[in-house]
Amino acid sequence: MTNNICIIGGARPNFMKIAPLIKELESQKIGFKLIHTGQHYDYNMSKIFFDNLGISEPDFFLNVGSASHAVQTAKIMIEFEKVIVEEKPRLIIVVGDVNSTIACALVAKKLQIEVAHVEAGLRSFDEKMPEEINRKLTDQLADYLFVTEESGLINLKNEGVDPNKVFFVGNIMIDNLVRNLEEAQGSDYYKELDLSKDSYGLVTIHRPSNVDTKIDLERVIEVLNHIQSKIKIVFPIHPRTQKNLKKFNLEQELNKPNIILTEPLGYLEFLNLMMNAKFILTDSGGIQEEASYLKIPILTLRQNTERPITVEKGTNTLIGNDFNKLKTNVDKILSNSYKKGQDIEMWDGKTAQRIVEIIKKKVL
Ligand code: UD1
Prior knowledge:
By secondary structure, this protein is of the alpha/beta class. It has helices at 12-27, 47-53, 69-87, 99-110, 130-141, 150-158, 172-187, 189-192, 208-211, 214-228, 239-247, 267-276, 286-294, 309-312, 323-334, 351-362; strands spanning 5-9, 33-36, 60-61, 91-95, 114-120, 144-147, 166-168, 200-204, 232-236, 259-262, 279-282, 298-300, 316-318. It has 16 helices and 13 strands. The N and C termini lie close together (12 Å).
């Protein structure tokens, strides 16, 4: 086995995207090194995903931790450069849109190492989101841009990206979902929380635009209050949200019999909760896609989405700050008159295979 490839994972939403690639490379006996930047480091933000998804220990752990954007990005760059100067890969693979994605892409490119970006081309057109900046810059640097949905092709064309670098391969996160569906369902985690199928809404909220100011967090709490008056809520709390609930002295507002709070959950537990929920309320990117694939109604507490296919064909509705829109859609869901959602092109569990075929042809 040669080690021409380095795969980068750093934060929670990366791990479900690297797992299918790792499996595919291993099954084809193509060597690679796995680098974990340490952007996320708590057991239930990182290691639990390695365990759940059967990813072996990373070859390098950069241990960068949390900090301001500049400090975190800079630390990743400094540590990552040391590794790849030593390893001399021909290609690095970055996924998604977190700080580790842009940091590693920039370092590799300056060392004339090729960069593949999995989940390229997505755009929210909202530069207040740090992820939007990461996406645009990573796509400018990348040599191979692997796109999940048609909007990505259009965005990259509009930005003048050479079409020869762009490959429509589908959604790698769905590969993982397809592979783990049976095991997740079998875990019956929702029963451990004393819930029955379709009897609860599942909530995840962590975006700075929803949780970083007291006013925004109070607005989210008002939404949760409305929902819990109609149906039970399960709310695994992200560390950023937890920190801010405490900071603004709002923790007790969630102390209601119809609200079940948990720590951040592992992949299989969370997937089990998604599959059995009546609906999902989120501000996450990936969950909009997973819910659409599962055809579970999903309401997104954001003004925009970089994943428009989930609204056009999937089960997603953008709620923004419109409380009336939220109420109307919750009512539609509870009365079973919400839209149903359709299958999405190339979200079929075979994206990793398509990516590896292209890498074999172009790089190895
Ligand atoms: C990061 C990503 C975001 C992604 C999210 C998923 C960027 C710019 N943002 O945001 O795109 O949706 O991850 O989780 O890359 N913390 C812990 N333990 C951890 C990690 C973080 O307690 O393992 C706490 C720290 O106090 C930190 C805060 O959570 O200050 C926020 O973490 P950070 O990595 O800065 O951003 P996320 O909000 O997680």
